[in-house]
Amino acid sequence: MYFQFANVIVFLLVGMAFVGVVLFIGRLFRPSSYDSVKSTTYECGEEPVGSAWINYNSRFFLIALIFLIFEVEVVFIFPVAVVFRNWIAQKLGMVALVEILVFVLILFVGLIYAWAKGDLDWIKPTPSEARGAKDV
Amino acid sequence: MERLADYIVYNLPFLQQIPRVIVDLIIMLFFATCMLLFWVALFAGITSWVERRVAGRIQSRIGPNRVGPQGFLQWIADGLKCFLKEDFVPAAADKKLFLLAPYIVFAGMFAVFVVVPFGDGLIISNLNIGIFYVLAISSLVVVGILMSGWSSNNKWSLLGGMRSAAQIVSYEIPVSLAILPVILLTGSLGMQDIIRAQGPYPWQWFAFHNPFTFIAFFIFFIGALAEGNRTPFDIPEAESELVAGYNTEYSGMRFVFFFFAEWANLYIIAALTVTLFLGGWNTPAHLYTNLFGLLHRSVDVAGTFVFILKSLFLVFVIIWIRWTLPRLRVDQMMDVCWKYFVPFSFANIVGTIIWMVLADAAPVLGYVRYILFVVGLMVPLAIAMKITRNFRLAKSEIHLNPFI
């Protein structure tokens, strides 16, 4: 058993070591010269204005939140999916079916809620737009 | 592979003097290095050439054809060139994260190869959590990409990295949900068990097992394209809007490693699709060999050949898609994921469960796979007819020979 999972660590280490070794050998051959103009941030020839470390669009945060909920759900469905065949073999298929249905439906309602609230739209309508054309 | 290690130690008595852990470690390092140098590196390099040649033919150009016969050595020339280029860190960047990012991306991609099967018994280690492990470890790539995007302190990189993270994270949901019908039908997470649950003939594959797996197959394939940042989902590195996305500030070999990972990822996508939905290494006829006693047991070479052939064909399809379809917009891409794929894949799971319960009671449902196989056959036929029609209607001269 340890052999099987030790392979994972070995592969991760070999992957990292490969990058490291290639970059290290490359250091012996490649040029390295400092230039203050060269080391400015590349913005297609324009002078960069300000830093890029800004407060970023909160849409991405919402997506991450929704992702987290569903990913946890998927992780919980995996074990059930693995044993489901056995349940059918034991004629417990309907019981398992109802259980999974309840679990999936609760989260599906969550998806519908997020959808109805407009959180799945990339460009969320502002309150004035959401009211419709009659207010314009 | 564990039994292969036993076999090697058994046949070479001097190894029994050394502690077994050290022998195992050396064997593991040997196989990992072989996999990296003789499969992943070769595949990624040659695919970069194939992709550019195919792109050239699709766009009525020639493509690289100067270095070596038909430009075949172009990928070595490019690698060597980048190897000799300056490895450059912008002054404004967060240096540590900037330097670390390629390591994470590359290791995250390479670690997936632990469970990529090559044939019956040919797998680095047949983990009992196989496909689940793939989902888990491939998330490392997102961390690396986000790291590179943020640490560059460049607006293009930040936009690209953020978009990439949002995209990969979003498509992870439909992809994992599309895998679930296969898990339900197999009752195991191991890659080899999933393949063994299918049969050698196309109508025994999971893609045609029932209508829900048929849909899951397309959701998985398209979602995997999006996770691999491939066109039509290459928004993170959209050349025409973001310069190069998260790797704008990278140069030389560090830049190469991002693309190395991307091309090697093509094989992972293809091999996973073949494993989960297209029958894996199952073949009607077998051709066993034990490589003159080198292996502890005979392996089926025919299966390996078929598996790699199917995977390479899918890689070609992915390249074909890239040079045929235009890029989606960010909001369209998110809509496709959350408003179509996620609800559909939920329906797939519930549908598969109901199907399994029903099929247990009514075995006649097993014949649906033949109908689905015929339907599935229609897709390539329709494409072929469309292509021949286009050929007929084209007034200009058509060169079918790829080698000019």
Q: Would you tell me the structural class of the helices and strands of chain A?
A: mainly alpha
The SSE string of chain A, one letter per element, is HHHH
Uncertain regions spanning at least 5 consecutive residues of chain B: none
Distance between the termini of chain A: 68 Å
Helix content of chain A: 55-70%
Categorize the overall geometry of chain A. flat
What is the overall shape of chain B?
Answer: globular
Overall average residue pLDDT of chain B: 84
- Beta-strand portion of chain B reads under 5%
Total individual domains of chain B: 1
Largest sheet of chain A: none
Backbone CA Rg of chain B: 23 Å
Look at the helices and sheets of chain B and give the structural class.
mainly alpha
Order of helices and strands of chain B: HHHHHHHHHHHEEHHH
Count of distinct strands of chain B: 2
- Unreliable spans of chain A: none
Count of discrete alpha- or pi-helical segments spanning 4 or more residues of chain A: 4
What value does the Rg of chain A take, in angstroms? 26 Å
The separation of the N and C termini of chain B measures 44 Å
What does this structure look like?
The complex is a heterodimer of chains A (136) and B (404). Chain A has helices at 2-29, 59-89, 93-116, 127-130. By secondary structure, chain A is mainly α. Chain A has a domain at 59-125. In chain A, helix 2 (59-89) runs antiparallel to helix 3. Chain A starts with a helix and ends in a 6-residue tail after the last helix. Chain B has 404 residues and is an all-alpha fold. Chain B has one domain (2-62, 71-393). Chain B has helices at residues 2-11, 20-58, 74-83, 95-111, 130-137, 140-151, 155-186, 191-196, 211-227, 239-242, 252-277, 301-322, 330-361, 368-393, and strands at residues 288-289, 299-300. Chain B has a two-stranded antiparallel sheet. Chain B is globular and about 65 Å long. Chain B starts with a helix and ends in an 11-residue tail after the last helix. The interface between A and B is large, with 71 and 88 residues.
